[in-house]
Amino acid sequence: MLLDSKVAVISGAAGVRGIGYATAKLFAEQGAKVVILDLDEAASQAAAATLPGAGHLGLACDVTDAAACRRAADAVLARHGRIDVLINNAGITQPVKTMEIDAASWDRILDVNLRGVLQLSQAFIPQFRKQGGGAIACMSSVSAQRGGGIFGGPHYSAAKAGVLGLAKAMARELGPDNVRVNCVTPGLIETDITGGKLTDAMRADILKGIPLNRLGQARDVASAYLFLASDLSSYITGGVIDVNGGMLIH
Ligand code: NAD
């Protein structure tokens, strides 16, 4: 198993149709003790209870709240005494145009998608350093690379592009501590993030631009996270893995 007895913390993983939960499930199948962080404690606990194997945990953690991130880290360390993998997956989107972005929307989208990655990483970095290593993987998006995905506005593209810069800089800084930091950049993945707005006509149109001729599934992204979390990627840091079916080849 690729993550035997590793402690893996995954943010935004309580929704059972989401990428975070698919990752939690795959990691548990690979022997990890998984900690699910999400906004709602009961939902996090319920999701953790469905994972295969024992020793999983579900906690409430709003990644925009630095104190909540530190509390989550304290709870993980109290329970397991270590962390091996952090998956910064939590995110939100808003399908609007440039002129529709007001200050509150900008703050909301940047806070969850970008500030959250920084704050949750900061909560665990001291422990990674103490242990002498670990792996962090961060959620960006094709939206950051091609100037918009399908469901994200320009502020979402900016936040996800910010994640790439933040993760690469953390990779450079934390390399000497043997902490690897990488990103995934998914294309359109079928989860609840589309908010039921994906019509059949839109789907057919989108598929014309995807060489693999299908939309992504949460498990497709979970597999990329697994690679980055495991020793299979032991010499990879500051990397970006496209999980987009060929939607963007560059
Ligand atoms: P999702 O809505 O199922 O998952 C997002 C999760 O994040 C939810 O469980 C939500 O409760 C949680 N969350 C939201 N705000 C939070 C906060 N402040 N603190 C903690 N958790 C919070 O959607 P998904 O598609 O699985 O999205 C997962 C990640 O993948 C997001 O970062 C998203 O931007 C990114 N992404 C998705 C796609 C796609 O097409 N689905 C493509 C590229 C990137």
TrEMBL record:
PROSITE patterns: ADH_SHORT. Residues 6-187 form the Ketoreductase domain. Keywords: Oxidoreductase. It is an enzyme of class 1 (oxidoreductase). One of its GO terms (biological process) is fatty acid elongation. Pfam families: adh_short_C2. The keyword Oxidoreductase applies. It comes from the Bacteria. Its EC number is 1.1.1.100. Gene3D superfamilies: NAD(P)-binding Rossmann-like Domain. The keyword Oxidoreductase applies. GO terms for molecular function: 3-oxoacyl-[acyl-carrier-protein] reductase (NADPH) activity. Belongs to the short-chain dehydrogenases/reductases (SDR) family. This is 3-oxoacyl-[acyl-carrier protein] reductase.
